[in-house]
Amino acid sequence: MDNISVGGLVGIIALIVFVIFIISTIARALQIVPQAETRVVERLGRYSRTLEAGMHILVPFVDKVRQRVDMREQVVSFPPQSVITSDNLVVEIDTVIYFQVNESKSAVYEIANYIVGMQQLTVTTLRNVIGTMDLEQTLTSRDQINGQLRGVLDEATGKWGIRVNRVELKAIEPPMSVKDSMEKQMRAERDRRATILTAEGIKQSAILTAEGEKQSAILKAEGEAQSRILKAEGEARAILQVFDAIHEGDADSKLLSYQYLQMLPEIAKGTNNQMWFVPTEFTGALKAISAGFGVNEELEPLGRAEGSERRKSRITSALADPRAALEEARRQAEGVSAEADRAGSESGRPFNPDVEKGQ
């Protein structure tokens, strides 16, 4: 009974182990490949086939999955590499590569590690390309460097089943001394441009100011010329009107002499007039007024020679003292005016210059 029980227990255990083995074998034989991924299968150590996305069944203990390959585009960033330019400057360059596996078999069997291979190929190609350029060309020719790197990498990795899509220079770091020199150069260039712009602004401002002053001076000169022309025309018209009025009024010598005598005191007005001259027409005016109103000249009883000498002495004494001459002129003008009033009263009407002028 006990022997039977032990034998049955062993059989049960063996059956359980066999079932587990069968299940595990089936599970290993059944392969489900996700999308954008392939698996390289070897049969008895040799390449058999490449499993695409989907469910696949392998022969147990015969087929073996060698490697899983990601078919999506991958991005690899390499650490900074020291590169020497043609002008013997050491720069640090970071690179980024975008690639995609096209053929899983080549990627597995043609190279042991395609990531390391692309890194080393990038470093050597980059040194060859940068070695033919100076620092300025290196900093300004990124597109050219990217194109050359991509061409070399794509050609070399083609047999690996890899296609290089893009190569980018992430950063180019020159030495600190070169950075300082470049910064000073850029600062000097900015200062030069600012100075040029400032000078251009000052030049334009001076030109516009000069143009404005020129236009202002021209307009001012034209205005002054027009003003003088109009003023001269007005004075000319006034003189013509006065002249015409005098001729139309037919003023006689008595009226003109009287007006002349009235203007003599105006000539002597003012504190700055230390000396003024009495015209020779003064005695002629007095004589004309006296003759017009029938008043004999004070010097008439005397002889002509004696009267002339006395008039000359009076004029000389008047010229020696301007104030005395002014008083003498006023006195004679008042005397003439009084004589004129008296003559007018005798004739029945007072003397009126305006009336006389109208006559």
TrEMBL record:
Membrane topology: Single-pass membrane protein
Organism expressing this protein natively: Demequina capsici
Membrane spanning stretches: 6-30
Signal peptide location: none
Keyword Membrane: yes
CDD domains, per database record: SPFH_paraslipin (cd08829)
Keyword annotations of the record: Membrane, Transmembrane, Transmembrane helix
Protein name as catalogued: SPFH domain-containing protein
Family: Belongs to the band 7/mec-2 family.
UniProt lineage: Bacteria, Bacillati, Actinomycetota, Actinomycetes, Micrococcales
Subcellular location: Membrane
Domain Band residues, every copy: 28-186
Domain of life: Bacteria
Extent of Basic and acidic residues compositional bias: 324-344
A GO term from the CC aspect: plasma membrane
Stretch list, region Disordered: 303-359
